[in-house]
Amino acid sequence: MYFVIHAIDRSDAGTLRGRTRPAHLDYLGGFDILFGGPMLDDDGAMCGSLIVVQAEDRAAAEAFAAGDPYALAGLFEAVTITAMKPVLGV
């Protein structure tokens, strides 16, 4: 099953995203990611993350999100996890 991880950065995160990015990218390599990337604000600055990951169930998707170095570092203000069914572009 696929899950969308939609995470919004804290407004006071400063350089935390950049400092944590190498560990975040290494972490993602161990999972079945359909697609993902940083979200951008109107000025083109990174302001969050969107990842579509394949996981056995919601609990596994939640564990994936919780184990992300970005989450462990406290980068996110809010995270939502929603199951999805890919139809287009697959």
Topology:
Blueprint: E1 2-9, H1 16-28, E2 32-40, E3 46-54, H2 58-67, H3 69-72, E4 76-84
Please indicate the count of domains: 1
Cα separation of the termini: 14 Å
Radius of gyration: 13 Å
CATH secondary-structure class: Alpha Beta
SSE ordering: EHEEHHE
CATH fold name: Alpha-Beta Plaits
Overall SS class = alpha+beta
Assembly form of the protein: single chain
Provide the low-confidence segments as ranges.
none
Shape: globular
Helix content: 25-40%
Number of helices: 3
> Can you give the mean pLDDT?
94
Number of DSSP-assigned strands: 4
In the CATH hierarchy, the architecture is 2-Layer Sandwich
**What is the spatial order of strands in the main beta sheet?**
2-3-1-4
Biggest pleated-sheet summary: 4 strands, antiparallel
- Let me know the CATH homologous superfamily: Dimeric alpha+beta barrel
